[in-house]
Design goal:
SH3 type barrels; 6-stranded mixed beta sheet; 5-stranded antiparallel beta sheet
Length: 185
């Protein structure tokens, strides 16, 4: 009987797309870098893009639903265009997202943009000329500023907002992942 139950579960898992390996790709297959044997990157079943990943809100009004369809209740409304959001799951044309406060739900993909933005989390954050603690600040950003993300390396990210640009520490912004950082040369 145990063998029958196990076979039924495997068949159901395959039918429902619950295969444990589905949507997973070894990180070295994507980045071209060698990695440990157990290094696995989760991929979205719809887009085949990495999960989690960051995007930004395209519109200044986006309904955040309890589930991935128009039939589900609206729990939140995001009201800030450009706000960075983390995609944690995909289902058809819907993406499960969360904001910097951990709030979220399901949003239609057409309301999201691949343009990368970050949220400044620390008040009076210096935007520095170079990615060094002692480098001269070119400007200061207030907490809550949304900035465009440039490149990241060695614990620093280059951001741009309101005509100013500079390097900030990763710990002072929300909207980047460890894999966004290039290895130092």
């Amino acid at each position: 009987m145990k063998g029958f139950v196990a076979k039924v579960f495997v068949v159901l898992a395959l039918i429902l797309g619950l295969n444990a390996g589905a949507g997973l790709v070894r990180a070295d297959k994507i980045s071209g870098r060698a990695s440990g044997a157990g290094s696995v990157m989760r991929r979205g079943p719809v887009t085949n893009l990495p999960l989690p990943r960051f995007v930004s809100l395209k519109s200044d009004k986006a309904n955040v639903r309890r589930g991935p369809s128009l039939n589900h209740r609206v729990d939140w409304v995001f009201t800030k265009a450009g706000m960075p959001l983390e995609i944690t799951a995909e289902f058809g044309n819907w993406r499960r997202v969360r904001d910097p406060d951990g709030q979220g739900g399901w949003v239609h993909y057409s309301l999201l943009s691949g343009v990368r933005t970050v949220l400044v989390e620390k008040d009076y954050t210096p935007l520095r000329e170079k990615p060094r603690v002692g480098a001269r600040p070119t400007a200061y950003a207030e907490q809550g500023v949304i900035a465009y993300l440039g490149s990241c390396a060695g614990g620093w990210c280059r951001i741009r907002a309101n005509g100013y640009q500079g390097w900030v520490l990763r710990s002072e912004i929300w909207g980047v992942l460890k894999r966004d950082f290039k290895a130092p040369r």
